[in-house]
Design brief:
Layout: E1 11-16, H1 22-31, E2 35-40, H2 45-51, E3 55-58, H3 75-79, E4 84-87, H4 89-97, E5 101-117, H5 126-130, E6 135-146, E7 152-157, E8 164-167, E9 172-175, H6 187-198, H7 207-222, E10 226-230, H8 235-248, E11 252-258, H9 266-280, E12 288-292, H10 294-301, H11 307-327, E13 332-336, H12 341-349, E14 374-376, H13 384-393, H14 398-401, H15 421-440, E15 449-463, E16 466-479, E17 487-488, H16 493-506, E18 510-515
Parallel strand pairs: 1-2, 1-3, 3-4, 4-9, 10-11, 10-13, 11-12, 13-14, 16-18
Antiparallel strand pairs: 5-6, 5-7, 7-8, 8-9, 15-16, 16-17
Length: 528
């Protein structure tokens, strides 16, 4: 399909009522090839009108519409006269605001459910086109007990007599279940039906069109100016580098800062990945400037054991090193960053008083005043899965694009307590063994994130006939879709035993290996 002049023109608005699944709704819509953006429920009427969506999706949420001070849908949403789909809380809020009745249930319905058709609906019948039966995922306490005038019930379940409703004339739809989660068998098809056939979006949001659009925007933004990028080896900065290389070629300089807290042979892996893309595709060669700043970072971290303090020191030291090296380059006016859409959403959410600081972000919020450069953020509107897709489209190898996430402060937040060079060296080796064995056992892609952690406690061990009193390594592997919740990965015992034996036998400074079986929540994925 030929690209439109503006691939953002056909778009949906996602109104967030605080659901843990809101970003998942947006990702599913994007997978349908339709652009969308997330805004909080208290978005102003002016902002709604300016955004001018072709349709609106109302998310679920943790509140109850039966309360007096809980979120409501701004009437400007309905004044647009575009299709609206309410999901869970969104359906309940719609029902109540149009004159229906919502009541609390005796018990919360959570998990798989089967719904049945109650009246003819081409929208709900989309579920049957894909699979036999209406297998959906429920997660709610309240339920709609009386339809608003003009609405009909299109589906019911055992505990929700009104599991779906619609006013076809006004193009208003509501579902009590969650089509955005994979547990709803035909949920993707239902969202696709809404986006394409009901809202009339063509599906121009593709990897090829995104790349073409991003290149055009970067060229328009920076012109003939020079750009500098901090290349870390992570997916985001690597994709930014590949994108900018195609957009502006020799105007880009990449600075690779070795802070002493990177994974084993990080620089070699990055260079190898880009050489593949350069040799196999049409990517221009990258100008990569490597800075060895290990002593500076570790010196600034000496004696520090508070996790947030370590993060801030690592972040501020990176800015100092990067700023110093960037100033040595002539004529640089732009700083490229790998900011992605979830970073933007989380940072913006704090304005509405609903976000709590779990840990500081390192790539959102502007630049220190002393860095006299402007920002260019070509991935700012993309989710991580979209970043990976365009990375592959740009010719970067899968081995780099599908790497597990690595925190901005690196091993600095995987060494608990104070950081020392010998601790980082040991952790690097242990982590490399773990990842190597995951790849060898074909388990790497089956887990979402895996890494080793250095614990500041010593344990007695025996190797051969010698007594060993050394530190402990913890292994962590999780399975997750959105990284907001995660389950510890149930790796085979034999595999964990093999990795443990390798680490203890090959690294003299380790006497014991443990495996983390904590899920998120209540634990976080990283240890600090």
């Amino acid at each position: 399909m030929a690209q439109q002049s503006d691939i953002h023109s056909q778009r949906l608005l996602i109104v967030d009522f605080g659901s843990q699944y809101t970003q998942l709704i947006a990702r599913r819509v994007r997978e349908c090839g339709v652009y969308c953006e997330i805004y909080p429920f208290d978005i102003s009427a002016a902002a709604v009108n300016e955004f001018a969506p072709r349709g609106v999706i109302l998310s679920g949420g943790p509140e109850s519409v039966t309360g007096d001070e809980t979120p409501r849908i701004d009437q400007s949403i309905f004044a647009l006269n575009v299709p609206v789909l309410g999901i869970c809380y969104g359906m309940q809020a719609m029902a109540q605001q149009f004159g229906g009745q919502v009541s609390g249930s005796d018990k919360r319905e959570f998990g798989h459910a089967r719904i049945q058709a109650e009246s003819s609906s081409s929208f709900i019948e989309t579920l049957l086109k894909v699979s036999e039966g209406y297998d959906v995922w429920m997660s709610h306490g309240d339920k709609v007990t009386e339809l608003p005038p003009g609405f009909v019930c299109t589906a019911s379940s055992g505990s929700a007599p009104i599991a779906a409703m619609e006013n076809a004339e006004k193009r208003l739809f509501g579902v009590q279940f969650h089509p955005e989660v994979t547990h709803t068998k035909a949920g993707f098809e239902l969202l696709s039906e809404f986006a394409h056939n009901i809202c009339g979006c063509d599906g121009t949001w593709t990897a090829a069109n995104i790349v073409e659009d991003a290149i055009a925007r970067v060229r328009e933004q920076v012109g003939s100016d020079k750009v500098v990028l901090g290349l870390s080896g992570g997916v985001d900065s690597s994709v930014v580098a590949a994108l900018l290389a195609r957009a502006i070629g020799p105007q880009l300089t990449c600075i690779f800062v070795d802070n002493g807290l990177l994974r084993k042979d990080e620089k070699g892996e990055v260079e190898s990945a880009f050489n593949i893309a350069i040799n196999d595709g049409d990517m221009p060669p990258l100008d990569i400037l490597t800075i060895d700043a290990e002593e500076e970072f570790l010196g600034n971290l000496q004696g520090m054991d508070d996790p947030e303090a370590k993060r801030k020191v690592i972040g501020s030291t990176f800015i100092e090193v990067f700023d110093r090296e960037a100033k040595r380059l002539e004529g640089v006016k732009w700083l490229a960053q790998g900011t992605i859409y979830p970073d933007v959403i989380e940072s913006a959410a704090s304005k509405y008083g609903k976000a709590h600081v779990i840990k500081s972000h390192h790539n959102v919020g502007g630049l220190p005043e002393r860095m006299a450069m402007q920002l260019v953020e070509p991935l700012r509107e993309l989710f991580k899965d979209e970043v990976r897709k365009i990375g592959l489209h740009l010719g970067l190898p899968e081995s780099l694009i599908m790497r597990h996430p690595f925190p901005g402060p690196g091993l600095g937040v995987r060494i608990l307590g104070q950081i020392q060079k010998d601790y980082a060296d040991v952790l690097r080796e242990a982590d490399a063994i773990f990842i190597e064995e995951l790849r060898r056992a074909d388990l790497y892609r089956q887990v979402s994130q895996a890494f080793a952690v250095y614990l500041p406690v010593k344990s007695v061990g025996v190797v051969g006939d010698a007594r060993r009193y050394e530190h402990v390594i913890a292994l962590r592997a999780v399975e997750t879709i959105d990284f907001m919740t995660a389950r510890w990965a149930h790796l085979p015992y034999e595999f964990i035993e093999h990795v443990s034996n390798r680490i203890i036998n090959e690294i003299a400074a380790v006497s014991r290996v443990v495996y983390d079986v904590s899920s998120k929540p209540p634990a976080t994925i990283e240890w600090e």
